[in-house]
Amino acid sequence: MDGRIRQHRLTPEGLVSELCGKAGGLTRAEWDRHAGQVPYRETCP
Predict the structure, then answer these.
(1) What pLDDT, in 10s, does the model give residues 1-45?
(2) What pLDDT score was predicted for residue 7?
(3) Which long-range contacts (CB under 8 A, 24 or more apart) does 17-20 make?
(4) What are the φ/ψ torsions at residue 24 (nearest 5 degrees)?
(5) 21-39 burial by CB neighbour count: b if 16+ within 10 A, else e?
(6) CB-facing half-sphere around the CA of 32: CA atoms within 13 A
(7) What predicted TM-score, i.e. pTM, was given to this entire model?
(8) What is the dihedral of CA 1, 14, 8, 25, to 10 degrees?
(9) Contact criterion met (CB below 8 Å) for 25 and 43
(10) pLDDT attached to residue 21
(11) How far apart are CA 33 and CA 15, in angstroms?
């Protein structure tokens, strides 16, 4: 971190790809904790 502010223009698909590349997908336990009653689905290929 160098203290600068950066702006990135991402499409929704680009944002998902970026997040999946850095953080990976949600586990079933994480999904249950954050998505509640929504049926589980894989978040990152």
Answers:
(1) 688 998 877 788 888 888 888 888 888 899 899 888 899 988 887
(2) 82
(3) 19/44, 20/44, 20/45
(4) 80, 180
(5) eeeeebeeeebeeeeeeee
(6) 3
(7) 0.50
(8) -30
(9) yes
(10) 85
(11) 22
